[in-house]
Amino acid sequence: MKHVILIFFCLLFCSCRQGGGKNDWALLHEASLHTAQPDSVMDLLGQIARPDCLQGKARADYALLYTEALNKQGRIGTNDSLIKIALGYYSKQAPGIPLAKSYFLLGRIYQQQGNDTLALKVNLQALAALPSQTQDRTRMLVNYDLGYLYHKTDCYSQALLHYREMQKYVDTHSDTLDCYITAYSLGDIFMLLNRYDSAYHYYQEAISFARQLENKSYERYIIRQLCLHARLTGNRQQAKVYLQEIVDTYGNDFYNKAVLFKEEGNVDSASFYFLKATKDPQIITRTMAFYNLLQLHRKEHPALAFVYVDSFHIYKDSLYALRQTDKIGRLTEQYLQQMSRQKAEANRRENTIYLCVGVFITLLLCGIGIFLFIKRRERRYLLLEKQLVTDRLAAIKEYVAEQNRRNPEAWKTMRQEIAAIETQTLIGQFQEAVWQKRINAIQKGNGKPFSKKEQAVFQKEILALFDELVKRLQAEHPQITKDDLLFCLLSLMNYPTSLIAACIGCKENTLRTRKHRLKEKLSKETFGLFFHSSINQQDTEEV
Length: 543
Description:
Blueprint: H1 2-15, H2 22-32, H3 38-46, H4 56-72, H5 81-93, H6 97-113, H7 116-129, H8 137-152, H9 156-172, H10 176-192, H11 196-213, H12 216-232, H13 236-250, H14 254-264, H15 267-277, H16 283-297, H17 302-406, H18 408-431, H19 434-444, H20 452-465, H21 467-476, H22 482-492, H23 497-504, H24 508-521, H25 524-530, H26 534-542
Helix pairs in contact: 2-3, 2-4, 3-4, 4-5, 4-6, 5-6, 6-7, 6-8, 7-8, 8-9, 9-10, 10-11, 11-12, 12-13, 13-14, 14-15, 15-16, 16-17, 17-18
TPR repeats: 100-133
Pfam families: TPR_8
Keywords: Membrane, TPR repeat, Transmembrane, Transmembrane helix
């Protein structure tokens, strides 16, 4: 039974141990080696059958890898519950790069929520969590986010410091995209600080990297910044060159072409391209095209402006309705996410309750089983002990019977001594009872005689105490009454006849008559045993 209980608790411990299975650990390790390919990471993590059963480090790694993959796919969203699992574990168990990554990803989520203050705070915590001598890509990303957030809050000097920290990483880890981001970020900051030479230098680097990446959007942005730089430095001829280059890069993007011509003051070309932009499939592009047409023709062509303003309001209302629909959709999504989190939390609490109840019932059943086992064992031991005592008693009786046959006189004397010892033991037990105090009080004259009810209880208890002697008297004198039995037992304890009469509520002469009658009915030996006192013998002689 002990081995069964031990095996059960071992199985219970193994079922409740932390961590995932061997296959889950292998998938997490492989996913950590492919963080540069978010699709591969998502595919590997999707092979984990029960991610909700992961515990400890496995659970934190899963949350970090999943959120990091979402960030690289541009789908990080606004839900921070998953990354906070990783943050809670790494902040206690594994400070360093994993903790810094968790803070960084939480900052990205806060940016999606529009909370730049919290995003700035957690990015500073990420920077502090990184080892001081480590040149990890995470440090570059954190510095970029800090520079971007300081840039948004017009803290240009602080932004420049963090962009320069990015430059240190890029100088030792050449990556075209990282080089482009660093170059255009530094160029933008130097433009805002009116340091045009530095800005031009970094924009030239950025456009080179954009062309290596073959990204027209990146290239167009840098050319626009160079166009702005040429205007601010008074080089209008160079600005026109950049403008024409931008127009060529836009292709069929009529709206942005129109915006460029409007900025240059070319009203006809701007109006031409804005009219083309009103056929764009995107409602917001049509709306802004009509708005710009309204602005261009408000003074010179009022009648035409009225047409544009009506179209603008129609599309603006449509755009507002779409935005409201999108807002409702986002609120619905947030509500569903909240409901999903609440449901998951409720399920977790319910599962915890079921687990606790199951463990409690299991332990209770184990306790009952152990209790029953112990009781059964005790009962078995008692039965064995009883059997042993019975066997010993039988052996003793057989021995006594054999010795009695061989030497009857010696064993008769021994039996009498044993009977005398037993009798004295019973007398001692009676004298320790409450009745002895009452008898002593009656003997001294301080107590009241026993009432009828007390006499009945007294008689019952003393007959039960001297059960063997009672059986002996009843064997010799079957018609003996309970009053006579009580009289014999009190005489055995050497109480005077007067005291016995006071206790049992009769006269002394009546007791003397009873004693005389008992002398005739009982054997001489039995009578002598109960009325051995000289006082009682004297009473008998007087009768």
